[in-house]
């Protein structure tokens, strides 16, 4: 912190000050910033109305106004003397003739005048008192005498002398009154000042009025309170609390302003002098400032004006006794002109400004800018006729200061400036420096690190310009020394102009290895307009030998920026120079592609045109302005070395063109040469590379061309990434001979790390007399003349070849990809069932038809098999899964044999949603000993583990666990029955099943959850079963149990949601709800039992609706013309369904079925063949069952009229026949009007 200037030594106890009679109110500090011809300096009279309303001298009887003094004496006379001093001074100014010539009379006159004033201040409280009346009369006479000439004054003095003795008693009485009415309040006021602040509302109002004048009519000023305090340490102190000002330019709020007032000057009437001002917690928020339209002064004149204003501020402050101004806890918020840009905020700001004699001024600022502390200081010191003004700052974050989002927060600047002036105030010199460094400029994807920039300038009055001394700038791995001149605006040119040279220019970008590019000469000319924040580069020239570059550009950093344009052209430039001069932040992805794909060469001609919008400066290449003009580049190249697709060899002697337009880069290579690791040179022709939008984050490219030469070289290229076409074929490129020509096409992301799954490619190759000296997939290939077509999914090879010593026609199809079918040994070998048996690959009835097989003998004695099952049929018995011919399927496993035991390890079967992974152990007769499947998925979504192990008592113990199982195939199989030979071959194998599955999926979106099953069966006979679970929709319980008994097994089942179970089993989808019970006995002769379903409904069954409509019509006709209409939904709700059934083999016989409901009912019987899924069911439908059935319950009459206990007076006979999924409904309409026993004539039997 700066210390205030030292007090001048000698003189009075109070500081010697210039013009002590004038106060700060007479000429406020703000006047110092006014033009020189209108300032109220020390020798000029203040304007009559300038600076706010005049302040009347304080009155001794007005304790609310400041200025009342205190005295250490306890005598009333002294208190009165102090209290009436301001009044005396007022009278002295009015009549100096009365004051000076008649001191003796004046001493007598003062008590009269004080008593008179005290009496008036007490609101004439003692008007009736005679002594006060006499004092008032005497006072009036004295005042009148003071207005007369000197003769009248003498007369007044003589008159007072003659009456002195007579009024001595009156004098003491008046003094006592004055002491009572003036001294006591003053003493109380003094005590209040010493004890604590004293509120002064009148002072608050007057200062508030001054502030209101400052903010103008459009603004508003307010002060919460004003306080005055006298302390033993600071003397007289005035506080303004909660100050607020608002206007069109800014809003400000200040917690407190403290004025340290010269108490001595105040008490003797020398005016209001302030030693120091302390401003606490100011918060200033500016409105959005519009660009200035006034003409800025010439820089030298501006410097001189700044010096003159600083001098006036320092002198005026010092003359008024103002030694120091401090500000703490300040916050300044300045909005930026850019839309939606965050404001500039200076927080935790502390400022100290001190003035001293001779116009000396010093100041220091400490502030926080975006959590970065920065400091600044300034000084004005005049010595020996020379004035020096210095300004410097440190650690100023340029990103936060200027609101640049493409500059890192750690990039700071440290500006310094020094101006010199002679005794007349004329500028004689100016120097400045700017140190920048330690941060990133993110104008591209990666940005450029600016290590350091030291710019130094000096004003040269004789030349009329500003010289830039050689100043180094280091960025990335490059170094540029900048020198030149800058000229200030003048009447002819309102812009700053500059003419710069680069005496040293060394460009070595960190992302480009090799020697740097060194320019022999470079010139940059242009203009800068600070008002519009624009930069124009009118001329850029650079040369290095016969290499030449020319360019121009313009940049706008104003409210609508940053924006820019850049146009350049090159002539006979080496590629190494071109790529190093290409700034990393300009079209970064395009530059990156050129760096990664072009290595060397010569560029005879090149032109570049760039148009940049604000989104190009945000360091994110994916953000693109829709109205932006894309970058454009045209160049030709010769003798170029370039990369082919990643990991392929370099092409040399390239001749072609490169174009970039609409953010798309296109490179065309007419001719080039490349050479693989083996096979000799290869000719490269007609190569075209087209990229995706260069501004996208991940660059895609499409590459096409033709390569011809030795087959070994072509095979080597085809074996590299991203194609890798030889490895799946088992071809060793080094063993290949012959000739080849390949046309290729690649498309996809071209990153350093190639993801083959994202690359699309095609190859069309012609091979002539190609042989392989080493086996290809255990086969020897010679004299092959074939055409190969390959892409990301498949490879085909057609032609003729000698395979394993046999002439063969090759027609190879090799799927490619992680989920593709197996590869082959160069050919497709089809094995019949006889071939498979000869090789120990007989699977009985599980596998039929030809299969493609590849067998490889491993070094450890095992054999690896890859089985292509696409042309074969594959069946897994018992679960309803079958794969037909034409459906892709693949099985792989390793087979080993020891002591007559065959082990199939790493078994993996994948086909049409099936995925089975595990190990299988077989005995010498291929009988299953153990199977352990870690994954057993027969349909997509199945999550099961299955383990089967042969029991000691023959048969298998099967354990099933999992989270999900799709049982629809199993349900279909159970409904159809299993009658094929594979089932018969299985014989009567005992099985013991223990299963726990969290969810079993059936038909109709129905499922059973938390299913637990324990079962024992032999063949098709279930001896014991215990199944529990809950329905997935409503959580109703399901339980099925088969327990052995003396005369057969007893089957019991129950469910709380029969409709859900029927949908699950795909038996009937329209029944909703219903509590179901089944009880049946299972014997060798078959199964017989009964089932009951209660409280259910049928949802929109077409056949049921048709019979309801027919019955309703017949009922209406029978009602003698009366209209009878059943409720529309009544026919769908039923009370119960009772069925008596018998099962023989796969035929379910419904002996009797009775349906009861309030609105309808009926009875039926028939058969259902579970194997053929054929239904044959006949019965009677009875409408309005609750009433109609009453006739059937009447003995004898009911049999005649109602057709029996379960019949009705009115009914329709029907028959359902055909496939269970869609049976045909037939009914006899005549039966609807035929009662009882006669209706049986029309039944379907």
UniProtKB/TrEMBL annotation:
Comp. bias (Basic residues): 131-143
Q: What is this protein called?
A: AsmA-like C-terminal region
Swiss-Prot/TrEMBL keywords: Membrane, Transmembrane, Transmembrane helix
List residues traversing the bilayer.
170-195
Q: Which organism is it from?
A: Pseudoxanthobacter soli DSM 19599
Q: Does the keyword Transmembrane helix apply?
A: yes
Quote the biased-composition stretches of kind Low complexity, using this chain's numbering.
29-48
Q: Where is this region: Disordered?
A: 1-78, 90-161
Top-rank taxon, per record: Bacteria
Which segments show compositional bias classed as Basic and acidic residues? 1-25, 90-130
